Amino acid sequence: MTRSKVIAVCGKGGVGKTTLAALLTRILREDGGRRVLVVDADPAVGLGMALRIFPPKTVNDVRKEILSAVREHATDQLDLAASVDYKMMEILVERDNLAFLSVGRPEEEGCYCQLNTLLREAIESLSSHFDLTLIDAEAGVEQVNRRVMRSVSHLLLVSDVTVKGLRVAESIREVAEEAVEYRKLGLVVNRVRDTIEARRLAENTSLPFLGVLPEDDMVREFDVAAGNFLEIPSCPALEAVRECLFESGFLSS
Ligand SMILES: Nc1ncnc2c1ncn2[C@@H]1O[C@H](COP(=O)(O)OP(=O)(O)O)[C@@H](O)[C@H]1O
Ligand SMILES: [Mg+2]
Predict the structure, then answer these.
(1) Is the dihedral of CA 213, 218, 224, 229 positive or negative?
(2) Is the pLDDT confidence value at 77 over 70?
């Protein structure tokens, strides 16, 4: 039996992870027969903003509830495990064939480790109920390193046309060799004005190259006006996502 697909979008900050995740969500919504879990794993909550979905409760809220239950000794370990699954199901926000989960943002720096552990458990238990799970990861290698992405089957690395962006993508791949059980990995280069230059940069890396997303005024307009990416009309970046991820075969197996 093949596992259900779990896709994580990873890369340096500001390269377009959230934009790519939002455009991909827009495409996945067209296929109403497929149940999709969308996870905003970045405490900066960009994906929720792009899709105009603002969950009343986040994984961080569940973390706080569990902590207070444990403090009050109100639950034993077994109850706790069952109630985590239940609580995660309960906080999903549904839109047609999509269910949306947001990690939230802890108040104190020291809580990130706990939150990442809970997020990993949530991803692993919830994803089995869906045909496909899409995760918009936090920038950089941290969540990969902390094995939050352990169960990811398709690791999608995004970079802009800078050497820095590509280096971060390569270092995520290095960490993922140990920390992620991925079946497929690929690089998308975003905000491209010169496809030949972007291709040359990508070919200088060791990463399998899936293609480019052009710099797109429609994306910029939606960003400026806080438009809902679930409703973005056909535009060059959206069509390029289809090409890079579906026509390339990346997501078809
Ligand atoms: N293809 C694109 N065309 C135009 N603007 C883009 C494109 N991709 C991303 N952007 C803009 O770049 C900025 C950063 O993108 P974002 O997706 O938030 O990056 P990340 O999630 O990696 O931090 C946003 O303002 C976004 O609108
Ligand atoms: Mg983002």
Answers:
(1) negative
(2) no
The confidence band for 78, taking pLDDT boundaries of 50, 70 and 90, is: low
CATH of domain 5-247: 3.40.50.300
How many angstroms is it from 13 CA to the middle of ligand 2?
A: 7
Tokens of 145: 């390193």
State mean pLDDT over 104-117.
Answer: 88
**Domain chopping of the chain, boundaries:** 5-247
Q: Which residues contact 192 (CB under 8 A, 6 or more apart)?
A: 161, 198, 212, 213, 214, 215
Query: Closest Cα to residue 115, out of 93, 151, 155, 84?
Result: 84
pTM higher than the cut 0.70: yes
Ligand 2 center from residue 45 Cα (angstroms): 7
Pocket test for ligand 1, best of 157, 192, 223, 235 (most atoms within 8 A of CB): 223
At 177, list the tokens.
Answer: 């060799």
